């Protein structure tokens, strides 16, 4: 799923794809709805399984998919994403129609399942990783069609959003039933990205705990000795100073991310002689309405913020490296915390809610790479943020732990665990390097 709402999962899956390719396995990436082709290593084959236009209407449209979608893909990817994200609710509409097609129609989206089966046969794919377990019925249907032998592995990462879309269409029970059928038909237990998320999937989607296994997401660890230019930040955020602490939010600017809580917390700290520079940046898939609310709210609260949309990886990494701390104030029960792991890898401690799988990222036993605050509580968020700004000894201790804690979530560790999970415990054999997938 190329961008926007599920960008974090795209980053995770492409990190895995690139790592497998570098180890000598042949890898093919199949895109649905949108593509981020420049995130894929040279030599990795890419195909578009379907364009977003396929789900413009409630009924899947092959004509809109193949003709209109192909024409739209001739436009630059950045332009496509900007136009779609600028249309409030459009991505949710596409995703809702996708879920309706897979779970609300007899036979699902049979034409797309056939196309997937044909691609897999043409590319001689033996192992398929579905980015979201909610897409499992597509793989299950393609496998049951016959004509090509393959096994599929499902991943739960953000599937609660698909469940919410199913619920809005009165499809939650069919969604649960068919999802569980797809999980049972897989050759392996489904991967889940945190221990807390296992409990959520068991409770909310009635998946058997024995059908789930935890494999944490992986992030690219920065190379040693790399210096991040502050000047590159000033080009994006004019007026940003290296002489005062930077408090940063990086992530989707959508309502469930709780950026307003962070604004309230910073306002509560007003008058305490804390020179905070607040930086907010990230994409959106639900239109710019919430991002505009953030800007308006900051103005009403009398806060100066450094505000941008999506930024380059270079700018993002520089921001992590120069931040006093990174705050992720989500009001959602986050499955993981990719941004938090990335920030700690660059030495920035994190402040996260005590709710969801995100707390597992900043803690390993007694060792902490950040602090937690009471979920949804802007007052406690303000208190913990003040501790990070005032208690220099605490801040130094957290900084000293960050990189070691982040190293647990390296791409290599994730890749090793995924390979072990599907029963491949050895390096890529000569046959794999020669052409097996």
TrEMBL record:
Annotated Gene3D superfamilies: Glycogen Phosphorylase B (3.40.50.2000)
Keyword Ubl conjugation: no
GO biological process: lipopolysaccharide biosynthetic process
Coiled coil (residue ranges): none
An example molecular function term from Gene Ontology annotations: glycosyltransferase activity
InterPro entries recorded: Glyco_trans_1
Domain Glycosyl transferase family: 244-403
Transmembrane segments: none
Keywords: Transferase
Pfam family, one: Glycos_transf_1
PANTHER family registered for this protein in UniProt: GLYCOSYLTRANSFERASE WBBK-RELATED
Protein name per UniProt: Glycosyl transferase family 1
Species per Swiss-Prot/TrEMBL record: Massilia eurypsychrophila
